[in-house]
Write a structure and sequence with these properties.
Elements (H helix, E strand, L loop, with lengths): L1 H25 L8 H24 L6 H26 L8 H20 L1
The protein binds protoporphyrin IX containing FE (HEM).
């Protein structure tokens, strides 16, 4: 269980890096966003985050459900923003119109990092 927990934390950090890293690198751009990276990162965060909760529930660790619920709602918003950006880009419009979705996903992921660490 300890090994599985460590694997999931590594996945959680890679998903985080995919969203926040891509966002910080491309936040000044007006098109050609790497939407697949933030979309993949958003899916990774939901999957690894929920799996981490499952693993913690099987152990005897105390879980802060208010914090987990808040993070889950924000992660779902990140996922929807990234999904909309990805769908638009898939239709061939990877231009300035994607920017609000890109910024929403990146900004909200940063909010989740702050929540995860300070709460
Ligand atoms: C954009 C989405 C997310 C980001 C950026 C994020 C970020 C983080 C960060 C930075 C940590 C490390 C905190 C620390 O060790 O002090 C963490 C841990 C954790 N996150 Fe997330 N998270 C996200 C989504 C989620 C979701 C959706 C869940 C579950 C519903 C979740 C559950 C957890 C759990 C259980 C831990 C503790 C892992 C451990 O045992 O060390 N996260 N997250």
């Amino acid at each position: 269980m300890e090994f599985l927990h460590s694997v999931l934390v590594v996945g959680h950090m890679i998903g985080l890096a995919a969203i926040v890293g891509t966002f910080l690198l491309q936040m000044r751009k007006n098109g050609d966003f790497a939407v697949l990276a933030i979309f993949g990162g958003a899916i990774t965060q939901l999957v690894t985050g929920l799996a981490l909760v499952g693993v913690a529930e099987m152990g005897d660790g105390d879980l802060n459900y208010a914090k987990i619920g808040t993070k889950l709602v924000i992660a779902l918003a990140v996922f929807v923003a990234a999904l909309l950006a990805w769908l638009k880009a898939r239709k061939g419009t990877n231009d300035r119109s994607i920017k609000p979705f890109f910024h929403a996903a990146g900004g909200l992921a940063l909010v989740n990092v702050v929540l995860a660490v300070f709460w």
